[in-house]
Amino acid sequence: MIRSGVALATIAILGAATSSAQTGPPLPPPRPRDAPAPAQPSRPSVETPRTLPDEKGPAQAVTEPDSCLVQLRADGFEVEAAEQPSTPNDLCRIEAPMRLKAVPVPSRPGAAVRLGDQPILACRFAGNFGRWLGDLVAPVVAGSLNTELRNVRTGPGFECRNRNGAATGKLSAHAEGLAIDIVGFELANGSTLRLRPDGDAPRNQALMALRTAACGWFTTVLGPGSDAAHADHLHLDLQQHGSSDRYRICQ
């Protein structure tokens, strides 16, 4: 009986050791199912760039002629868009044709110089010509002659013809709306300052100064004394000579 008890005790101890080896160390209690998930680190938001409207689309489309005209009006010019002149020569074309009626005089707010002939010109030439009149010619006339410049006689501006009206040769700058011919300046005192002197009268010093200064504004300046074709008017144009727009013909 003693051996049987010892054997049973030994079996019990071995079973407990085996059970303990299979069970292993105690584990922590399971996490409740409703426990909140750990917060994830927030990622910086990335803003999706807005799709800008197509600048060339209908809502944004602004043609160069329109923008030029708008700018001149904003600067105080009195202008209006003109139809492309109808001519038998397809080479006689104006880029952004417009009719020039009056230009402002910046040194005298509210003052303007009229162009009674309302010449048809390329918009970019009209801007250059108008600023020459308002910024330079009007102040020089007022300062040297003690009267205001009221009107400038120019003729039609655009003319579909060759240079100097020749039967053959290169097209005139007039055929592209890039030229103007000034016959005289009408003053507020009722007199007219003509480009061609009367008889043997000496040349007006103010006109000579304006003619010289015009070489800084235009690529071609021709007038009385240049040749027979320009004996009675001052021709101004922006036609490019050669490969550079810096080359000038001033006679």
Radius of gyration: 44 Å
> How many helical stretches?
4
The total count of strands amounts to: 11
Query: Into which percent range does the helicity of residues fall?
Result: 25-40%
Structural class: alpha+beta
Beginning-to-end CA distance, first to last residue: 148 Å
Shape: globular
Largest sheet composition: 4 strands, antiparallel
Low-confidence stretches: 1-24, 34-38, 41-63
Mean pLDDT: 81
Percentage beta strand:
15-25%
Order of helices and strands: HHEEEEHEEEEHEEE
Specify the oligomeric state. Answer: single chain
Structural commentary:
With 251 residues, the protein is of the alpha+beta class. The protein contains four helices and eleven strands; from the N terminus they run ααββββαββββαβββ. The protein has helices at 2-23, 64-74, 123-145, 205-213; strands at residues 78-81, 97-104, 112-114, 120-122, 149-153, 179-182, 184-187, 192-194, 220-222, 234-237, 249-250. Strands 1, 2, 3 and 4 form a four-stranded antiparallel β-sheet that branches. A four-stranded mixed β-sheet has the order 6-10-9-11, with no helix packed on it. Strands 5-7-8 form a three-stranded antiparallel β-sheet, covered by helices on one side. Strand 7 and strand 8 form a beta hairpin. It is globular, with a radius of gyration of 44 Å. It starts with a helix and ends with a strand.
